[in-house]
From TrEMBL:
GO terms for cellular component: mitochondrion. It comes from the Eukaryota. This is NADH dehydrogenase [ubiquinone] 1 alpha subcomplex subunit 8. InterPro entries: NDUFA8 (IPR016680). Its main location: mitochondrion. Coiled coil: none annotated.
Amino acid sequence: MNICQKERQLQGKLSSCIDNTVPGPLCCCSHQLPRGTGLRMFTKDFELPTEEELTVQEVNVTTSSLRAGAFHLGKTCEKENHEFILCREEEKDPRKCLTEGKDVTSCALNFFRKVKKSCLEEFSQYAHCLDQSSKDLNYRYCRNTQAIFDKCVLDNLNLERPEFGYFSRAQVIQTNRPKPEGYTSVEYPDAPPPIPEVDRARAKYGARNYWMT
């Protein structure tokens, strides 16, 4: 069966569901659709969010601008991002995390508004450097403009650039959101006692991992 035939078959199944010529449960059988379509069918009684619930002001910035502010944005909106990811992981249903998703978008909008008000020129120069210096928006070619932008954000917004590896660390998230229904915590009654920590000087470059050659 070629691509055109698959397309016609898919359109026929969708039309049958819409016209009610096929029972509701049959419309949600994903195995009846051609493989590789990337579509998922639902029954008619499946509740989807309304257009009003999904419509929010988007963060309309370029890729280079988003990359230029990524470190400070991640630190500013750390709590909102954690809440959203935790909700998605626990609930397993994106419909239940619309509020957390809107909080993430709102936080990002507020961050870029503050940057525009206080460090527009420094931010624009940094983003322009990332856009023009390499094909993959590499940071290493723009350390000078990065330092100027970092200083401006620190002086005006009191926001320090996170150190290398900050967002890769394992973190325990504290949340006030109630646990989902049926959630059970994993307990290991025979777990060995933890090894006591010792006082260690802060790693100079953010890690103590050895390099394999």
